[in-house]
Amino acid sequence: MINKLSTLNKLLNILIPLISGYVEIETFKVYLLGLILQERWFSTHGISKRNETKSMWQVYDFLDNGINWQNIYYALAKYVFESLIENNWYLVVDGSPLKQQYAENRITRKGLINVKDEKNIPHNELVCLSLTNGIVYIPLDFRIWTSKKITNKREYKTKPEIFLTILHQYLIRRIPVRTIVFDNGFASMKALKWLNQNGFIWITRIKSNKKIKISEKHCKLKDLKLEIDQSVVLEMTGVSGEVKIIRTCHQDEVVYIATNKTDIGDTKLKAMYKSRWSCEVFHREAKQHLGLENIRMRSWQKLQNHVGFVCLSYALLSILRQQWGGSIGHAKHIIHNEVYQIHDAYERLLQKLAC
Fold it and tell me: What is the pLDDT of residues 13-50, one digit of tens each?
């Protein structure tokens, strides 16, 4: 186990210099290792059920600090990308609601907005760009989308607009992965055009009412009446160049999958889109094991940092999972069995990491 934990220690040694001088390192470790070591209720229970290292008000006060999560994520991604000699890395973009089932307020940049008497106010939503090989899953950047109904008009951005903002940042960071998979909620014409202009291979689900051009005729995609698993190469209105589209079944639903890589085989195209499922696993496991939706804070900055810690702890656990196998919960269980059954669990974990 000491050898296994040495990997986690090596990763921490890469990350800690990035925050040194900006935030209190000890409390940063408390929150990060608390999420990794314990169950999803850590953010409300504290670092140890038997002997809390810090009271929760001190931890929550720490969450008011500004933390550059993008610097941390990209440094980790570059290290892992260079360490694991593989060519099957790809990017995934997806959104997931941060549900607060019984909350009377929504957390926004301008403070708490009461929604008790309002109808149909969507939950805040995490929009995240991640780098993955199907096992290791490293969030690179995230934004928290808030409904137009509760957001300042000058600050409001649609999810496709957030998507492009994140991708602009991705280009600056110079990670050489140019294959990206996403769902139809991000497949605006502007986004697809931008991806083409910047050399990305994209795979996305699109709606059946997309306007297309085939054999010099304009029509809607559904008018082609494609059979299941039938594909076609055509032009899509507003997108330069040809695209390949296949009609197929995915999770008991008939869907259209499109890509600008027209020479890709039908089987591989379907497999690439299904690889987007890794983001669904991320959302599920982050909520079940890391408290992504366990929101007990009331400010925008604290919410941002809580989500940031959850994403980072998931990334670290997914790297360990590459070595150990199993799920994120299994990786947590291995660490838990080694250090949690003693009263000074947090201090013992730090000692073992230093070995």
Answer: 888 888 877 788 888 888 888 888 876 666 655 544 44
Angle between helices 189-197 and 159-173 (to 10 degrees): 10
What does the alpha-carbon distance between residue 3 and residue 110 come to, in Å, rounded to a whole number?
47
Starting at the earlier edge strand, list the strands of the sheet with 90-97.
137-145, 125-132, 90-97, 179-182, 201-206, 254-259, 242-249, 230-236, 211-214, 217-220
Are 221 and 205 contacting, i.e. CB atoms less than 8 angstroms apart?
Answer: no
Residue 135 CB neighbours (<10 A): 14
Residue type, 277: W
DSSP state at residue 228: T
How far apart, in whole angstroms, are the C-alpha atoms of residue 143 and residue 300?
Answer: 12
What are the backbone angles phi and psi of residue 59, rounded to the nearest 5°? -65, -45
Say how many residues make up the chain.
Answer: 355
What is the percentage of the chain residues whose pLDDT exceeds 70? 87
Q: How far is Cα 157 from Cα 117, in angstroms, rounded to an integer?
A: 24
Which residues make beta-bridge pairs with 131?
91, 138
Cα(178)–Cα(180) distance, integer angstroms: 6
Which single residue is written with the structure tokens 């306007």? 211
Domain boundaries, the chain: 2-183+276-353, 201-271
Q: Which residues pair with 212 in a beta bridge?
A: 219, 236
- C-alpha 211/C-alpha 209 separation (Å) is 6
pTM listed for this prediction: 0.89
26 residue type, one letter: E
- Strands 230-236 and 125-132, by their bridges, are unpaired
